[in-house]
Design goal:
This protein is an alpha/beta fold. The protein has two domains: 241 residues, Spore Coat Polysaccharide Biosynthesis Protein SpsA, Chain A; 192 residues, UDP N-Acetylglucosamine Acyltransferase, domain 1. It is 20% helix and 28% strand. It contains ten helices and 39 strands. The strands form six sheets. It has a 16-stranded parallel beta sheet that branches. It has a nine-stranded parallel beta sheet with strand order 14-17-20-23-26-28-30-33-36, with no helix packed on it. A seven-stranded mixed beta sheet has the order 5-4-1-6-10-7-11, with helices on both faces. Helix 7 crosses helix 8. It is elongated, with a radius of gyration of 32 Å. It starts with a strand and ends in a 6-residue tail after the last helix. The structure holds uridine-diphosphate-N-acetylglucosamine (UD1) and calcium ion (CA).
Length: 487
């Protein structure tokens, strides 16, 4: 069979029930925008082209599609067949029927005028799978239907359009909740908003759709009744999993779908050999990878393109974003790690903060309340407690004492600190950058260092201690004699 399917994603609506400035389809669930999920599900199906009808905040939706890698672009690899999404502009959002009609010219051309099939999906059904859509398309072909509606049986049919059938089971119409009678509201079979249409009959029928008197919109669903009355062959395909076709209309539904998608990802990792404590509490983005025998404790967020090697432990409530952790890395509880890299066997936390551009060498230890920014920490070096290391290059086997601060900012510019292999920085030191601490040098505790320290030297830069024996005895005696002058 020569395939000629065009897919249209309806995504021009504002999503009134979201009560948001952001278009509905750009809200995220499971680490991707709603429209990104839908595009990924439909892409393998459209032999001709994939379109999105956009309107409300069109530029923003277009930009989001582009940054998710769905085009539209102008360079090589764009154009028909490249998998990019082409855009249809619906200037005013006057309903789903109006949305499809807005694309008539482009869609007819892509579907080679009258011969092709147009599959319509909504931009707000993120759980949809390619398999279900394939099944719908095959059903539509098998039945040689002019229109096929994907339906689902919902325990709670809520606000979905209801499927009206005749006594012999054939499809008559779809009625929206607002226009449904009490009797029709009891129908459990709902319209998923996903359909296949034969191009040649779709557009003439769309032209005959009248404005709905209740909402003032042009409903795509009305096409079904028009086609049925004209005697066209219609078909119904039931979705196996009603959850999969759920349309997301408000933020409560968004949260439910997010939970489902997060669990899907967690399960995938567990099957691949990752231990996850309380999987219902972790949030792992779809592109994150985790090696076998790693453990993800409760409440962990793994975001963006994070890659975690084998045998790592990510402690409870840590948040790792766009970072690479090699093998056997331990992240203890409540760390924040962003755009950083941690090498084999290193340990971070509890309560450590690795800011962008941090690179922690193999076997290094970054302890509690240590903040590192844009710095490289060499193999086996240690900053075990309470330190700020920014814009620094730290060599191997360096000890950074508690309370050490690299003073990297003079109010205008950032400056570099270099600490060479084997150096020892005593507790409570301030290293005023730019400054270099030579190989094997020793900075005495409490020093404020602003000059370079040569290799193997001792640098001590603090006020000398003076001791006055018996001073307290004299003080007490004096205080007793003097009458109090203040209360
Ligand atoms: C629609 C169906 C309903 C079905 C449900 C499934 C209609 C009239 N109703 O209702 O039968 O049960 O989907 O989820 O079709 N859109 C546009 N332009 C517009 C209006 C909407 O592009 O002018 C887009 C929206 O961005 C959205 C999709 O169409 O992605 C569906 O619109 P929505 O308002 O969510 O329709 P529902 O009320 O859910
Ligand atoms: Ca919807």
């Amino acid at each position: 069979m020569k395939d000629s399917t065009v897919v249209v994603i309806l995504a021009a609506g504002l999503g009134t029930r979201f009560k948001s400035k952001l278009p509905k389809v750009l809200h995220s669930a499971g680490g991707r925008t709603l429209i990104d999920h839908v595009v990924r599900a439909v892409k393998p199906l459209a032999s001709r082209a994939t379109f999105a009808v956009i309107g409300y905040q069109a530029a923003q939706v277009e930009q989001a599609l582009r940054s998710a890698g769905h085009g539209p672009g102008r360079g090589p690899g764009s154009g028909p067949g490249s998998g990019e999404v082409r855009l249809i502009l619906q200037k005013k959002q006057l309903g789903t029927g109006h949305a499809l009609a807005a694309g008539e010219r482009q869609l007819r051309r892509a579907a080679s005028s009258n011969r092709g099939t147009i599959m319509v999906v909504c931009g707000d059904t993120p759980l949809l799978t390619t398999a279900t859509l394939r099944n719908l398309l095959a059903h539509h072909r098998r039945k040689r239907a002019i229109a096929t509606v994907l339906t689902a049986d919902m325990a709670n049919p809520a606000a979905y359009g209801r499927i009206l059938r005749s006594a012999d089971g054939s499809l008559l119409a779809i009625v929206e909740l607002k226009s449904a009678t009490a009797e029709q509201k009891k129908i459990r079979e709902i319209n998923t908003g996903i359909y296949c249409f034969e191009t040649r009959e779709l557009f003439p029928a769309l032209k005959r759709v009248r404005k709905n008197p209740v909402s003032g919109e042009y409903y795509l669903t009305d096409v079904i009744e028009l086609l049925a009355k004209a005697g066209h062959r219609l078909a119904v395909c039931r979705a196996v999993d009603p959850d999969e076709v759920a349309g997301i209309n408000d933020r409560a539904e968004l949260a439910r779908v997010d939970t489902l998608l997060r669990l899907r990802k967690a399960r995938e990792l567990m099957i691949a050999g990752v231990t996850i404590h309380s999987p219902e509490t972790v949030r792992i983005d779809p592109d994150v990878t985790v090696g076998p025998d790693s453990t993800i404790e409760a409440g962990v967020y793994l975001n963006g393109g994070t890659k975690i090697g084998p045998e790592c432990v990510i402690g409870a409530y840590s948040i790792v974003t766009d970072s690479q952790l090699a093998a056997r890395v331990t992240v203890k509880t409540s760390c924040v790690i962003t755009e950083s890299q941690v090498d084999d066997g290193a340990s971070v936390g509890p309560f450590a903060h690795l800011r962008p551009g941090s690179q922690i060498g193999a076997g290094a230890r970054i302890g509690d309340f240590v903040e590192i920014k844009k710095s490289r920490i060499g193999r086996l070096s240690r900053a075990n407690h309470l330190a700020y290391i920014g814009d620094a290059t730290v060599g191997e086997d360096v000890n950074i004492g508690a309370g050490t601060i690299t003073v990297n900012y003079d109010g205008v510019n950032k400056h570099q600190t270099i600490i060479e292999d084997g150096a020892f920085i005593g507790s409570g030191s301030e290293l005023i950058a730019p400054v270099r601490i030579g190989r094997g040098a020793f900075v005495a505790a409490g020093s404020t260092i602003h000059d370079h320290v040569p290799a193997n030297a001792l640098a001590i830069a603090r006020a000398r201690q003076s001791v006055k024996p018996g001073w307290m005895v004299a003080r007490v005696r004096k205080l007793k004699k003097t009458p109090k002058t203040h209360s």
